[in-house]
Amino acid sequence: MLLPDAIWPRRADAAEVIGAGLEIAAQGMGHRQVAAHLGRAEGTVRGWIRRFCGRSEEVRRYFTVALVALADDPVMPDPSGTAIGDAVSAVVAAHRAATMKWPDVNTVSRWEFAGRAIAGRVLACQASC
Questions:
Q1: pTM for the whole thing?
Q2: Distance, CA of 74 to CA of 93 (rounded, Å)
Q3: Please, what's the b/e burial string for 79-99 (b: 16 or more CB within 10 A of its CB; e: otherwise)?
């Protein structure tokens, strides 16, 4: 089944909502605070964060490479001190570079962009799952 970019595989919430939760978590909030802020179940948000943390290095690497490919003069995000923060920063920077290169990308949220760029695998489990 083909899913719209706003929906990631095996997730009931829109990419933009999940991404907002990941951005909040990257700032140091725990899953309970993120869940309260978004009005989502704690277990759901905890699952997003755990899954993203497990893939954070792969996501960071993928979007850092994308940033270098997209930007004429790429500005690498500063290290945040956390794996989730670094991965979120890479997604944000790559999306910004894509909007500079292709202004129409600006009509797509950064998390829809991330899902499209990495084929919906932002939170997907490894092949061994």
A1: 0.86
A2: 9
A3: eeebbbbbbbbbbbbbbbbbb
Task: Provide DSSP, 43-87.
Answer: HHHHHHHHHHHHHHHHHHHHHHHHHHHH-SS--PPPP-SSHHHHH
- 7 forms beta bridges with 14
Q: What is the pLDDT of residues 97-106, one digit of tens each?
A: 999 999 988 8
Q: Among all chains, which residue has been given the structure tokens 């004429």?
A: 72
Q: Give every CB contact of residue 46 below 8 A, 6+ residues apart in sequence.
A: 31, 35
Task: Let me know: does 91 contact 109? Beta carbons within 8 Å.
Answer: no
